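#structure-requests
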Amino acid sequence: MAVTDPDAAPVLCLGEALIDVVIRDDESEEHVGGSPLNVACVLTELDHPALIGAWWGKDQRGAMIEEFARAHHVGIVPGSDAAERTTVAYARLDEQGRATYEFDLLWDVPPLPNPASLAHLHTGSIAATLEPGGTGVLKAVKDMAIRGTVSYDPNVRPSIMESPEKVLPRIEELVSLSDVVKASDEDLAWLYGEDTPVEEIIRKWLALGPGLVVVTRGPWGAYARLASERDMLVIDPLNVEVADTVGAGDSFMGGLISGLLDAGLLGNAEAKARLRHATWNQIRSALHRATITSGLTVSHPGAHAPTRADIDEVLKADPHLA
């Protein structure tokens, strides 16, 4: 990994870093995971400095997380190892490679860097709604939102979040504070009901305040809406053979943040303003990068983080994605 600018301010990915116990056909393997850590790894592989602010224990599994972060050149916020034990997520894969999760977790927020030292804050998943850490995440988002840019992925986990009624007020508050929001159609179906059209929820969330809302739809690609554009854009998925879907949404999120940073549409207060007035021509390459990173991830087992070289190979094969 060679960061484009070694003096660039890092992206802080705030949320869970954990051990995924992946179970398929009664066989299991342990892998380092957690949505925010996956996003951080995608960013560093795409040449952006990134930090993980998380909550794991000083145990063998915690050491696995630290070794994994170092291997991917992800910085660790001091104090992230203060938990009593390291969180474990049990991911059961079905015949199509789709994962369902059960968790044994602890979550709180370590002392965080000054927002002025950061390029961007990304958060989401369990960490944004689970207390006591959820309140700390909300405070961090508020602090960053007045100085720079924020992205958010609710990454719904029903077994932890319990009910839509319990978490929806917090989720919508975080949507209102964010510049970029990405969710899956499965997230929205759980939060608002399967009969509520995706387009209606996208409009609702845009009205809350983000500059860009994207909803991923698996084999149907992704829907995107800009605050400054009337029409919705539909992005086709990358045509690949799916190994499994572990980390697919995180890879999409990392690719999207990377593309928007490179386009000057995330990273500081001025970029926040530019995103609010951006056109599809300015943002299309970021959406294509997200589609490519996600497609490359699902073509590999586990939460694979593609590199710039991997993306370049896809672009050579299909220049229309540039």
